[in-house]
Each structure stands twice: as structure tokens, then as C-alpha cells.
Fold each of these.
Amino acid sequence: MTSFLDHTINGLVVGNIYALLAVGLALIFGVSRLINFAHGSVYVVGAYVGLIAVAHLKLPLPLTILAVVVGTGALGILIERVGLRPLAHSVRIAPLLATIGISFVIDQLIQLTFSPDPQALPSLVPDWRFTVGGVTVGALDLVIAGIGVTSAALLYGFLTFTRLGWAVRATAQDRDAARQMGVDVDAVNRAVFAIASALGGLSGLLVGMYYNYISPAMSFQATLKGIVAEVVGGVGNVPGAVVGSLLLGLTESYGIALLGTTYRNLFAFVLLVLILVLKPNGLFASNRQLPPEPMTGTFVAPSRPLKLPASALAGLTVAAFALPLVVTTPYVLQTLSNAWLYAMLGLSLTLVAGTVGQVSLGHAALLAIGGYVSALLAVDLGLPVMLAILAAGLATGAIGTVLVSPAFRLRGHYVSIATLAIGEIVGLVILNWESVTRGPIGVSGIPPIEIAGIPLYSAAATYWFTLAVMVVLALLQAKLLASHLGRTLRAIREDDVAARSHGIALSRYKAIAFGFGGFAAGISGAITAHLYSYINHETFNAQISILALTIVILGGMGNVLGAIVGSVALIGLPELFRITAEYRILIYGIALLLLVRFRPQGLLGTV
Amino acid sequence: MPITRRAAVAGLTAALSLASLAAAGLGTAPLARAAEPVLFGVSGPLTGPNAQYGAQWKQGFDLALDEINAAGGIGGRPLAYRFEDSQSDPKQSVAIAQKFVADPTIVAELGDFSSPASMAATPIYQRAGLLQFGFTNSHPDFTKGGDFAWSSSVSQAEEQPLVADFAVRSLGLKKLAVLYLNTDWGRTSKDIFVKAAKDFGADVVVAEGYQPEEKDFRSTLVRVRDAAPDGIVLISYYADGALIARQLGAAGLKQPAVAVSSVYSPKFLELGGDFVNGIYTPARFFPEDPRPHVKKFVETFKARYGKEPDAFNAYAYDALHLVAAAAKVGGPTRTGVRDGLAKIKDVPSVIFEKATFDAATRRIAGAPSVKLVVKDGRFTLWDGAKTN
């Protein structure tokens, strides 16, 4: 059974690497109650600062580390100052969106400066190796472990024994009370971002040296793995983050040992969901610990929504339907058709995230389920396309609700993380369930949409079809929200304890919302599959989940019209910035940041 | 009803975006015609996770473009291309497709990079009758999208038996471990490879698929070790190939390793360092290649970019030359270019030596292969010795 030992050591070595990321994320979450999506970008910056120091300035290791720590620490302060401090008094969700925008900007700047090509980052640590069991462990592994454990210990000491550390913890427990006791909360936040970012940058440097490989594209994966490790250890728990990381590494390693490499992330995300469901405060939360801050109510900001009179809405709808008569450019119509399809996804998410307060970060999975169900029904069983699309909507509503049901008992950020994991699991099941989904080869030759035997080929026909479906779904949703059901759903968002004490069965109403939302998203995914004619597991990826959330926040949480406006803006803007070529995603990121800064409650306001 | 000033401004901004979006689309159509360049559209990733490949395409295209225009362009008109960034994302590649098909100045399209992005756009190109020339699209169904879908990507049905031949017949390996990129490309390749290797009398003792974003292969390599192979086959691109090669070394797996031709890149050598020494690959060309056409490509590329070209540079370089040759033969119109592809014969090519399309499959057969081994950090011709 030597391989068991080998897999254990490998798991610990890999977990060791995740730990450096998770500790920084845990610190930021602990104090700011924020999932920092820019953490992976800071990690990338650390790696590239290291590249300059090592390859161009030829600095020795200690000076390289110093350069990375100072550089990324300063970047952390900048992120806190520019991206987050101005949002301190706005909605909880706004800083989250800001970190997404910041990560776009940083990743693009790195890519424009250093080219998108991966580069070698030579290790300055001597390549001494020794063998444990059947695997080798190198000097760099020990350096990483040393730095990981030392920084966690230092942080623990800092938080426990220093005045600033007490201030950090006081701020983490109750920001307002801390402020009243004279704690300079801004200084605390600055310190936390500086420390966490320096750690993130350091891990970028060390991981880059470890693999002799750095690229601007490694940021998203780093964020994802860091978040998983952090949650396993208990969000905001610094020593827990280290143990959580090691556990994640071990789970992946054993998963590979059992079933093979393609199942690696499946195990990681199943572990995450299990932990969330069984011990939502993380493995190391004591039972006495206070429940996490109730995010509902504070998570979605109350604001006065912008309301259009019915006549204006009707006018807009007529104008939208008449548009292809005036604008005949297929490119514009195609872009708007995409916007209508994403508006359906936005409708779905704005219902569950905005109205019920269950912020889902895995919504692309619903598109994937809808797309695959419809494509397979049409290709394998020869079902007429319209019927297949409808069936896909219903199936997605049902499957989606069942899949998310374990997360019904969770609140706030935990729902987001659980849905993120469930979304990844759906993608991995599609990849691995080859007998049905055809695995990575994907489904090709998906028939086009047909109405009464006439296929919809022209851009205008596609435009009208997607617009019509979207308008119907939007009207249904508006009707739903205006009914007593809408009021109940909002009550759950505002205060789930009060709602429950009024006899509202929370899970049942959440299921209704996910069922309806799943239907809309499933229809959107199904239409997309028939328009594309080919889909595989990469067609509906995690980036789309982030896009969906951005659409919803931008439009205004829970706002039906907002989801549509948000979708048109976010699908349209990257196309609009096309003239700026390589700079367009950078400009898109900046535009996103400005929108969050000046309109955190969304363009049309929360309903 | 209260409308805040900010909301009004925001609403106006959104409306303006829409209006200028429409204007941007409309503005491209009416243009003067005289001495106007022959225009190809390119849909590919310039930003996002695959941006590196788009950057390599550009280098290959620009080199070919200058050669074509120096030789008189197409019927006296200069050739130009318009590169639209799709991020290799299907929702953007279909919008780009609509943009290209509606623009009468564009007579052919090249790309996209990944199968989901390329094949989502195929119906649009097919219905509009605009050539979609996929030169990295090895998905077996790509050219089945219609008679306007053509590909110069080496079919895996051809490539993988060459890899198997190298590993099994030339190197005499009998028990193989296969590591493959778990995408449509890697999976198709692996299936064909396993079959070919079995036909040649070898066993595949373990096959492991990994995700494109994976960096750590330690645990995978323990599985490989436990299967006790006598050789390792990498169905990888250069970046992940180099990562695996390094970790093979670190894990103490000393078996000979054969990698598919996509690892052919100076980056493979840079990222892999000493660890890629001794790795075999059946490539299409190599720096000291004596064939004059390849020699010219390698030398002009090095002179212009200060580095050696890789496989993706060569695919792009060849693709532009091929479509330009078709435009010369068939005329610079949409159907002309398509019909031209069926007519061109023995076009000099880096990848194929002499490229001729099979009009039925719309692919090119007969890519030659040279057996290379990495030696002292360079791709060199394999000397026929069985172990390193």
C-alpha cells in the first residue's frame, strides 16, 4: 500500500500550496466579510513582480521576496482604497462586484504588459530532493510549507496579541461597535488588505517558481481553489484555512487515486458541498460560536426602484419588436439576441438572488442542463425542437431545484459558495458522464429552431424569437412577483427568521423560486444550444455564472426590467468596445467599476 | 414618480450604448471600392484564457501577409485581414460571424480557436456562403458543418498513428501510459492513439485525462508509476506538456516520453528546462529542416520576431497562404475562394510540404512527419537510437 502513502504526501504538498492563497482570503473575509475575487489577480501580480526581480534584475531570493511582498502589499492597499473604501456604506454585494471588476483590470494590465504567453520563472531555491515513500519532496516544498505555517502562526499571533490585531478582530465581529470604541476601521481594513495581498503575491511567486510557469490566465483558478480551501476550513478562520487547504489537497489526491485525474475537481467540490451542508461554519467552528452575521436583508440593499409607467414599458416592447425593421445589420441583431438570451438567465438569477436573497454563483450550470437536455432530446430521440426546448425548461427547473436543495438551509455567502460548487459539479458530471453527454467531444449537429416546419435562420427571425420568449418569461415573472408569492419571497429575503415565525415554509418557497428560475434559465440554455448547433462542457463555463451575477447586480437585484437592461449593457459593452481591440476587456472592467461606484444599487434599483 | 438624477444618467448611458452599437454595425458597409484590399476576417482569442494562441496566430499571419503582398497580392489587389477578438467564446464568435457575413468586403473567414466557439458559428457562415477556414479545428465533425467549412488542421486520424508508430515501432515501447488533455481535441486524439498503438501490438496500461487549467500532476503520476509502463505518451499542448515533463522528472519517472506535435514550441523548451531533454516528438518541421520552404519560414520568422516559430505560428502562416492561393485561383469573391480551395494543388506549406485539399472531406491529407528528440534544450533530428 505504498501508493496510499505517496498519495497522502502528494496531497499534503499540493494542499500546502493552496494554503498560502486560502490564508489571505480568510483574513479578508474575516474582517471585511468579502469574498475577494481579485485575490487571484494579486497572486498573478506577485508572480510577475517575481519575474522582473529574478529574470531582469537578477535579485537574490530574499530581495525577490521583499520586492514581491512590498509590491503586492501596496497593491492591496490600492485595491482597498480605490475599489472598496468608497463602497463601505453601500450594499454588501457592491464590494464583491468591485473585486470582480478589479480582477478584470489587473489581469488585462498584466496580459498587455507581459503578453498572454506563459513564461518561465526560474526557481532560486536549490533543487535538493529527497524521497519519502515512493515520491520525492523538494527543498521548495519545504520553503512553501515553512512560509505557509509561519505566516499563519504570525497572523495568529498578530490577531491575538497585538493592539492592531485586536482592532482587526473587533472590526470583524462588529464594524459599527468597533468604530464607536475608537477603532480606525479604515486603517484596519488597509492593514488587512496589505497583509493578505502580500501573502497572495508571495504565493504567486512561490507557485510560479514551483512549476517554472506563470501566465496571466492562472488567476481565476487560483481564486476558485483558494475559496474552496478557505470555506472547508471555515470562512474567516486563519488557522482553519491552512488545515482546510491540506484537506482539499488530500481529497483531490485520493480522488485521483480512486477514479483518475478527470475526477479531481469533482471530489474537491463534493467535499465543499458536504462541509457546507454538514458544518456550514467550517470544520473548526465550535458550537458555541455565534452564527455568522445574518446576511439576508443587509445583503440586498433597500432602494427605491426606478419604475416605468405601463405605457412606457409597452412602448419599449413595441420598439424592441420593431427594431429589425429599422436596423437590419445582422451583427447588431445577433448581439441583441444574445442579450435577450442572457436576459432570460438574468431573470432567473434576479429571482433567486434578488427577490429571495439566494445569491447563486453557479447559474451557468442551469444553462448547461437546459442546453444538454434539449440537444440530446432533439438529436438522440428526434423530438421536435420546440418540444425539446420546453421539456428542457421543465427538466432544468426540476433538476436545478433538486441539486440546489441541500443549500436551502444556508444563508448569505454560504449559498453563493455552495451554488458555485454545485455549478462546477454539474460541469464535471457532464464531462465525465460520457455515455449520455459524449464527454469532452460534445454534442454536434443540433438541429436549428423550427416554427411550423420553417427553420429560423435569419438574424431577424432569431431576434424576434428570443425577444418573444424573453418577454413572455419576463411578464410571467412580473406577475409572480406582484402576487402574494412575490411578497412571501421578499419576506424570506428581508428576514428569514421573521418569515418562518409567520408560518412560511422557507424551503418550499425557495424551491418554488429555484423551480421557476430554473425553467427560465433552462429555456435560455436550450435555445442557445439550437442556435450554436454544437455544445460541449466548456460552452457554459464558470465565467458565465459571474457574468450572470454581474448582469443582475448591474440591473438592480430582483428587478425584472433591470435584468434585461443589465444584460443589454453587459453583452453590448464588450461589443461596443471592440474598436479598442486588446484593450476592450480592460475598458469593460473599468466601466464595471465606475458603475458599481456610482450606482451600487443597480441601474434600475432593487425591488 | 421620483427618478433620481443618477438613474436617469445611467439609463441614458445604456440607451446611448445601444444606439452607438447599432451605428458601429451600420458604419462598416458602404465603402469605396477602388484598389481596395481583398479582406479576410479572423475570429480568434486576443484576450481571455486562450489569448496566447491568438497572439501566435497574428505573428504567423503577418509574416504570410507580407510575403503575399510583396508577391503582388491577389490579382493586383493587396491582401488584408481584420482580426476580431472572440475570447474563443461562442456567444462572441457568433456575433462576429454575423458581422463578417454582413460585410460584403470580407471574402473569407479564418478561425475560431476552440471547437465550441468555431462550431457555434459554422451554421451562420454556412448559410451565408462565407468560407469558414478552421486551421486549429481537429474536431472530427468540424468540416461536416457544411460545404463552406474547411480545415487545414492535421486530422488526428492521421496524426495519432504517426505518434503510435514512433512510440511503438521506432522506440520499441510496449506498455504505454497516456496523459491527455481532456478536451474534444485531446479526447479524440487519445481514442485514435490507443487504437493505433494496439494495432501495432502495444498495450495502453493507463490513460489519464486532465483539465486544461491543471498545474499539478503529482498524484496522476503516482497512478502512472503504479501501472508500470515502459513509455509515456503526452497528448498535450506545449504549456501543459512542459509542466508534465518537469513533474515526470521530479517524480523520478525515467521512462522515455513521446509527445504529440502540438508541443513543438520554443516555449516547451523554456518552460520545461532540463526536464524536456530526451522527449520525443513527431513534428512537422524543425529549426534545421532542410526543405527550402520551411527554411525560408523559419529564417524570416526568426529575423522578424527574434525567436523560433512554433506549431501555432506555422498553422496560421500556412492557413493565410492557403486561403490566399485559393483566392488567386478562384477569384476574390466568397464562392471564388471556396471553389478555389478545391482547385489549388500542391501549395507549398510548412505543415504539409505540398497541400492539396480532398474536396469530399474538405481537409488535407499527407502531412509529413520528422522524428525529433529534445537534446540540450533544442529540437533535433532523432538519430535512431532506441533509448536516451
Amino acid sequence: MKSWGHLEEVAGRLSAISRSQFQSVFEKFEWPESLPSDCYWMSPELTSCYDTPVWDRLSEPEQIRLTQAESVNFFSLNVHLIRGLIGEVSDRIYTTRYPGLSDFFHDFIREENEHMWFFATFCQSYGGKVYPTRGFDGAAPAAHESVRDLMVFGRILIAEELCDVYNARMANDERLPLVAQRINAVHHEEESRHIAFGRQLMTALHDEAREQADPSELEAAGRYLARYISVCLRSFYNPSAYVDAALPEPLSIRGEVLRHPSRAAFHQSVMERTLKFFDRIGLPGRESIAW
Amino acid sequence: MQVSLERMENVLRPHCRLLNASEVLDFDASLVSLGVDSIEVVQLIIAIEDEFAVQIPPRLLTAETFATANTVLAAVGSLVSVSEDSAQEARS
């Protein structure tokens, strides 16, 4: 298939860039002993309560504390995402299904391993912990090999693109501590290669599934990814982060903000780019997303 | 606050994607077999926390807790009684 050949070309180019720009992750950042407690650590516009009555009710110190706890939550989400992603890619390296991609997978795993390290270092140094994941791992449903991989790599692409929207917006936000800006900037820059690869892979898998799998399986995969989008968006609303920000009634806060229409509009805006891509390759399921 | 079978069923049903509205929810049936996969369980956790006003701690976020409706009921029941005890202690 043409899209598979193109995928190997793209992977080769991205590997070459990754190797030519290599710098040890341990030299990329300067880690201050502590971060100022009186400034935002995450852009307030990206916090889960923004543009709702909850946000308006918070005092300025509470708003600042919320950005701090949610920056640790956001980076914790990245840690868990990357752990799962490395597992999936490791399962496929040197397999007969992806023979031309093993070299790229090495670079991919190395970069993702570095990303996980800097995200976790931030969380542990300034938040005292990595927030635990609010679910548990599960295999993609049984289906034709191409459809199953479409669900696995679709999940990865959704989470990567969603986090990248946040990274891109915070990379140059001068209200944040330098180390937070830099983490967002480095991740945005390196993740753009992974997203480029992920889109090529999704295109190839979708072409393969259309040729070889039952159409009903492809439709089910679209609905599965739509449900995953809903879950991903809700992972930003962590009651434990509200507790750490010393906000009262954390569960009520989550319920109130999730019900507010401005949040659904925000969710649609941050997923727009990914959904346009899914539309372009013809992946169904958009109508199943619970915004 | 009590965790009645009826209340639990009301929370669980919308997440049992493979259970028809006319079918009885078997509290011993595997939730995975009823359509509660690893994605749906995240939505279910939020629904349970909202309905019973308790936060499910990480130690209970396991496949064992979400194996059947009965295992979920037992886990949530223990949290609700702990939460009520704490509230009572705070009042006295």
C-alpha cells in the first residue's frame, strides 16, 4: 500500500532529525530549588475551572494555587500517557508487522523516555508527587489487527495532540516560571515529530483497515476513539488537584464545571485539529463524543 | 446516605453499553462482559463519585474493584460508611 511506503520514508526523515538534534535531557533544563508560590505555573485560561462561575468565585490566591496544582496534574497525565505509549511501541519493535520502523521506534522510545523523566521531575520537585492515574490500563477490544492498531495508535495520537495544544500555548507564556515554559516548549518541539509520524501511521492503518477489515469494526473503532476523547478531556478535572489547591468541595466543583457550557466549547476547541484530521482520513465517530 | 442496589444500578446502567434496557442487571456478571471497558470505567468512576459524594482512592482503582456490580457496591459501601463516620466525628 502506498501509505505504508510513505510511512517508512517519513519515519526515516524524522529519525535523522532526532539524531542530528540530540542533546542529553539532563542538560536541557535548569531546575530551581523551588518555584515562586505567588505566580501561575499553568496558563489560567487552560485550567479546568476557567470561564465558569467557579473560577469567578475563587480569590486570586486560590486561582494561583489552582494553576499550580493543575500544572502538576497536567504533567502527571503526560507521565501516564507516555508510560502506556512506550509499552505499546515496545511491543511492536522488531515485529514482522512493522519491519521498516524499528529504527524509528528506538528514537521514539528514547525521546519519550526523556519526556517522562522531565515531566516526573517537575511533579516530584515542585508538587511532591506524580498524581496517580484515575483509571487502569486495558487492552483495546478484539478486532482485525489493523483495526486494533488503529484504536491503540488513535488513542496515543489523541492524547499527544491534546497535550500539545496545552504545550504550545504555555511554551511562551511569560507569566509561568522559566522551567515550566521550557518543559512545555521542549515537549512541543519534539512532540511535533511524533505527531507527524502518528498521523502517517493512522492514515496507513486506516487504509489497511478499509481494505481488509469489516466496515462495522471500523465504525466501532471510531466510536471507541470518540469515547476515549471524552475520557481524556475529563482527566483534566482531578478532584485531588482541587484538594491540593485547598478549594472547598472538590467533587462539587468538578460536577459544576463539567456541566458548564463554556467547558464543552473549550473541549471542542482543543480537539478541533485532531477531529479535522480524523474527518480527512474518513474515520467515523465524531457524533459519539460526549463534550 | 446509603448505597442501595437501586441507586447503584441507576449509576451503573448507562455505562453497561452491552446491556439492553429491558434486561435485568446481574450484580454478579462481569462488568467487562456488559460493556464496561477500560475507557468506560473512567466515566463510571466520575459518575459514582458524583452520585455518592465520595472520592475513590487510588488503592481501589483496580480491575478487581470494577469486576462486577457487587464488587463496586462493596467498595463504594465501605467508602460511604467511612465518609459518614468522619462527618459524624466532625459534628460531635
